[in-house]
Amino acid sequence: ERAVRTLLARHAHLLAARLCELLGLSEMKVAVVHHWGKAKIGGAAASLSDEALLAALAPKLDATAGASHARLAAEALAVGRRGLAARLLEKEEDATRRVPLLLQMGEERLALTSAVAHGDAELIYLLLLHLKARLPSALFFELLQPHPAAQRLLIHFCRQQDTKTLREFLYHADQPLEAASLAAAEGYRAETLSQRTRGLALARQFYEVAAARAPLGVAASLSFSPAGDTGASHHAALMAHATGEQLRLLTAQLNLERETAGAPPPPAAAALAPGRWRFVDLPLNETLFRCFVYGQAPYAERLRLELRVP
Asked: What is the mean pLDDT of the chain?
């Protein structure tokens, strides 16, 4: 190996390659081909076309087991031969070598296509995280549109780590019903009531959008009638109405909490108020009952009319 390295230092590539073949040094022969290719690219005249260089490099790389087209593509990119780098990457079979260089070249779309075609979930995850941090949300979601496999991996990741991005993606993918369900679930998992209120308000907005659009993909799974879109639209409208009523009830319960703050619970309510809240999280009928118990009969009547209780 020392003799081969000495020959490489003197750019005696042919002699070094012959010596590797004679001694059976297959890994060293790969290093020789890489060294030769880098020297070929770095020393090429500016007038020499990328096509001519590719014609000289490709046969040697193809004939050498283990030789990497991506290694020489990186060299081509370093010396400003972007076209040659792209052509070499087309021949690179190892996606783990091809994808990072495509990203370095700013070819995000090609990088994603390559990673998905390779089928390595870990590689796709790493690429998705990189693209998510690097690109605006709209462009990121647009890149994912032709790749259902990448979309499924993003949804799986975001359900556990980033529900905000998931909600944005579902809306961008024209799935407002799913986005609404997610926003409502987030609201009820929130630590504060203000966060819950915001979550429910956002869910209502998504349901209203779904009622207006009724996208085909969602209609197929949520339709209540053979009409497809009509069924999904009707379902979304019902959910928007129900979510709006839940918001009004929650607002009323918060107001009742303030109205009765500091007041000792009447005897009739002592057994009914084990928690810190007197009204929040109660169903409508229990809320109305407690209004009477706490002397809030006018509020009970107003709430009954507002929510159309018989």
From this structure: 84
